[in-house]
Write a structure and sequence with these properties.
The protein is an all-alpha fold. The radius of gyration is 13 Å and the shape is elongated. Keywords: Membrane, Transmembrane, Transmembrane helix. This is Asparagine synthase.
Length: 55
């Protein structure tokens, strides 16, 4: 499995969960969206860095 794919997918799920909780728990939602986006960015960085090693 490609390195960085798991954090990117996990971050997408956490970001979506935070978006769903936006109206009911705004502070928790903001934290979840922030952590989720951080995972997406870090996973994307890993995917880009290791893209040439797959070929």
């Amino acid at each position: 499995m490609r390195e960085g794919l798991i954090p990117a997918v996990l971050g997408t799920a956490v970001t979506a969960s935070g978006a769903v909780l936006r109206n009911k728990f705004p502070m928790v939602a903001a934290a979840a969206v922030g952590f989720g986006l951080a995972h997406v960015v870090l996973g994307a960085i890993d995917l880009v860095e290791h893209r040439k090693s797959m070929f």
